[in-house]
Amino acid sequence: MKLSNALSLAAVSAIALTQAQAAHAQQAPDAAASAAPPSTQGGDEIVVTGSRAQGRSKLESASPVDVVTLQDLKQQGTTELASALSNAVPSISFPRPSATDGTDAIRPATLRGMGPDQTLVLINGVRAHTSASLNVNGSVGRGSAAVDLNTIPSTALSSIEVLRDGASAQYGSDAIAGVVNLRLREADHGGGASVTYGIYDTDVDTARASRHVTGESTVTASGWQGLKLGSDGFLTLSGEYSHRNPTSRGDVDPRLAVPVVDNRFGDPEVDSYTGYVNAAKPLGDTWTLYAFGGYQYRESTSAAFPRLASAAAVYGLPGFLPKINTRSKDLTATAGLRGEIAGWKTDINVSYGRNRIDYRTLDSANYTYGAASQTDFYDGASIYDQWVAGVDFSKKFDVFQSLNVAWGVEGRRESYEIKAGEPASYGYGAAFPRAAPGAQGFPGFSTLNEVNEHRQNGSVYLDLEAQVTDKLLVGLAGRGEDYSDFGTTGTGKVTARYDFSPAFAIRGTASTGFRAPSLIQQYYTSITSVIQNGNQIVTGTYPSTSVVATALGGQPLEPEKSTNLSAGFVVRSGGFSLTVDGYRIHVRNQIGLSENIPVTTIPGVSAARFFLNGLATTTRGIDAVANYRLVTENAGTFNLTLAGNVNDIKVTRVPTSPLSTLFARSRIFTLESGTPGEKITGSVDWTGARLGATARVTYYGNVLQPGTTAAADQNTGKRAITDLELRYQPKDAPFNLALGASNLLDVYPRQVPAALNTTGVTAFPFYSPYGFNGRYLYVRAGLSW
Description:
There is one protein chain. By secondary structure, the protein is mostly beta strands. Helices cover about 10% and strands about 50% of the residues. The protein has one domain (about 5-45, about 190-785): Beta Barrel (Maltoporin, Chain A), CATH 2.40.170.20. It has a 22-stranded antiparallel β-barrel. A 5-stranded mixed β-sheet has the order 1-6-7-4-5. A 4-stranded mixed β-sheet has the order 21-22-26-25, with no helix packed on it. Strand 21 (about 525-530) and strand 22 form a beta hairpin. About 50% of the residues are buried.
């Protein structure tokens, strides 16, 4: 980490502390404060992530935890959960890649710049299933298969807890960077509905041309209803429909006689339907039956690179713009019992998750069929599912001041399947048998790509947390796991916190972690066109133990291992709180997707790649969050937050092979500089008697989108994005109205120079952590009952 960046963040925190203490001395009288509603952002929220001891708030925990409320998620222009979470938490990044095939539709989020699959996602404390999509092209998170956060509507949630700490010893595989726990809404009465409509109003200035865009609308309708189950249970239903029109931010195509925009570089067109349910019903005085789950159908259509008429004419075809269509069906279902056995609080649950993605290529052609080619193709499907069953026990003992003992066992079964598409989507026709086979833009899965694999694992954990004295809290956790495919692994964690006074505490953790290679990384196989320095290359992705991969140096995949260290302090006084936490995460034996290695022995394929272990990275950084809640007698309530993340990643080891380059500079620099080194957010949220407002400015450090050489590198530049929302919300009225602007000042990343954008498609770096769509204006209307 650059020392100047760390000092800057520390200075910002110190200034915030000084100003907030001064403001605290001038706050409203106690009578006014006591009449105000309870704080939702002051640090008093009870958290369940990172500690199995009940009743601990986020400012009392030994590990740093962010709590994002439903209000935080709603008071934004975006209705995508991952994007809203990124706006609220500086350590989370959610880039919006384009021209990256399936990744355009299912975009991964990152925590502290690490891999999307190095963060564990829970729903009500139960492991969520990952997507069936593998990010194989040149985007942030290349090679990962992560949980798709956008399968869960914000209206179904009460809050989100983000544990910024390694937690494999507590929760198992994947929790290297941290844990995101989605807590569902619990209500036995009431309800609400809202409609959000927005359009872009932006000036698109590319390297070759400028234009103004108005439109590309998005509409989202959502609602929830709480119902009673008998006299003491609840059933909460939530639903959401969303339609997003595609955006287009490409440059004009210089290859045309009259240059025009013939591409669709931007967000895909999306239609989604989502429903969620959360329920609980006491069974007598001791046990409670609970269940939750949801289903989403989402159809996305993005665009590949245009095929010029001059090239297509060779095969008797006109020019065309291929579209990549994905239809995702995502299911989550969990049921369990909570109660007590012999004084031990007990939670028994079973969960099932499944994601199926069907792929289609539209408005395309298979060149080998010539003029007789069909234009729409079914490309096949990928399917991932998992069963999770667990039993958790916890009990408090009168040892020291108190000792909380938690232990449990968990079993998991995972399956991964690839189904072939129709023959024309991947095969050869007779008209031009020497042309590249398959649908242009996204060739289908062939029968040779079909996969049907599964594995099991079992784990056991012990988690101890002792309040040794009034001031000293100590925790110790250990976990052992056994996988049917690669064997056993063990992890441990120690935590400590010391409160010098009610106003100041220090805290720290040390842990080891791991991430098991996913089934998708082990068995994914396909042939597709990828873009490298603006050129299309037909590339095959093969399992690491396949004949092709072993000839190039492939071996069975092993788990990633990590060592995590963190230390920080907590300051709180009245309505003010400040947390500062430094961290170091060293990952060894990290899994990566190799380069596109040239091959000449596979028909129709010019390059091959596979997954392998051997990378090592070290991530260092500082998180700081300052919050001040000011309640006034006449001017309303103010919540002021200043939060930042300074992050530095270094690749310390790269596997090599005498046969080829396994990881080129572009992959290394993507890991090191593909996410912001600095992200700082300042926000003011004001609530008056009838009016309210939220203003937020987010500063992003430069992001590098590397090429194969330094001359091909692209930089986003340092940028500040301003968001503003105004609300009309009468205190006793059942309706509310909001007007807002995301990216109010219409800020874009740097243009891609014309020399690096020879097709006109990739006009802006798609590594941009805030996208490249420009100003977005929206209105939101809501009802509650």
